[in-house]
Write a structure and sequence with these properties.
It contains eleven helices and no strands. With about 220 residues, it is mainly α. Helix 6 crosses helix 11 and helix 9 packs across helix 10.
């Protein structure tokens, strides 16, 4: 089915189903970058994409299905970047892996989508996108054997640790630092962790050292 466009007097643009889906998903992700899925609806996504509500429901069925498809698209893009940089990341060592994980997980779009999945109960569902896509397994497959003397279970634990720590830190960094009495810049005088950027760098450095210990040949 081609996109017939809105009846707005503008020239209709005919698109293939793949082009229409991509347009809708890009529009949804653009909105989710600034607002959580619960603050957006079909009306806003349709307006952003310049298509009708009916076209969105035709391709995705429900708004919840659209959000999950957008989540999948966001994850797919991050996985493609990571898998395309495997050789570079292996050369860069744990610091490069942690930095890339932080880059992906600090994206506000990802944080808002994870929060939506968590609050809606979808994150723990057996049929959630993480189970279907198995992105971490694909990553482990790509790097397995590249670290001499490191078994697969150690690689799996290292990847889970980086993802878990980076995601938790990205979602709760201010609360965590505040709990340590470091809520505001300069709270501890000349500490090298006064600024938010310095604290983030400190966290990545420490996490990298932990991961390096896990990846040392046994």
């Amino acid at each position: 089915m081609a996109d017939r466009g809105e009846k707005t007097g503008r020239k209709r643009v005919r698109r293939t189903p793949e082009e229409a889906k991509a347009l809708i998903l890009n529009a949804a992700l653009a909105l989710f970058a600034d607002h959580g899925p619960d603050a957006v609806g079909l009306k806003e996504v349709a307006a952003q994409a310049g298509v009708s509500h009916g076209l969105i429901t035709h391709y995705f069925g429900t708004y919840e299905a659209l959000v999950e498809a957008a989540f999948q698209e966001h994850v797919n893009r991050a996985q493609a970047v990571t898998l395309g940089r495997v050789d570079e990341l292996i050369q860069g060592g744990p610091e490069a892996w942690v930095a890339l994980a932080a880059e992906h997980l600090n994206d506000p779009t990802y944080g808002r989508l994870v929060a939506w999945a968590l609050m809606s109960g979808r994150l723990g569902a057996d049929d959630f996108i993480t189970h279907r896509a198995q992105g971490l397994r694909r990553l482990i497959d790509a790097i397995d054997g590249r670290f001499r003397g490191v078994d697969r279970s150690s690689l799996e634990f290292a990847v889970i640790l980086v993802m878990s720590a980076s995601l938790g830190y990205s979602l709760a960094r201010k609360a965590l630092w505040g709990s340590l009495g470091s809520a505001s810049s300069g709270a501890r005088g000349a500490s090298p962790r006064d600024s938010e950027a310095a604290r983030d760098a400190w966290f990545r450095e420490k996490l990298s050292k932990v991961v390096l210990g896990l990846l040392k040949p046994r």
